[in-house]
UniProtKB/TrEMBL annotation:
BP GO annotations: negative regulation of DNA-templated transcription
An example molecular function term from Gene Ontology annotations: DNA-binding transcription factor activity
PANTHER family: HELIX-TURN-HELIX TRANSCRIPTIONAL REGULATOR, ICLR FAMILY, HTH-TYPE TRANSCRIPTIONAL REGULATOR RV1719
Protein name in the entry: IclR-ED domain-containing protein
Gene3D superfamilies (UniProt xref): 3.30.450.40
Domain IclR-ED: from-to ranges: 1-66
Amino acid sequence: NGYAYDDQQYAIGIRCLAAPVYNYENKVIAAINLTGHISTFTDEKVKIIKEKVLQAASEASRKMGCTPK
């Protein structure tokens, strides 16, 4: 699916969503993530946050020379 989602598995009350950043060799070199408390990282916002994180990772990958598959 291209992202990782932690829904309080690591810490109660904390959610995290992350996506990889690729370089010109299509190798993972970094990740972009967003972590927040469930009071602000609500179920309703997960879809929006996921899209924003995926967009940011895609843009960073493009700037690192990654070509889409």
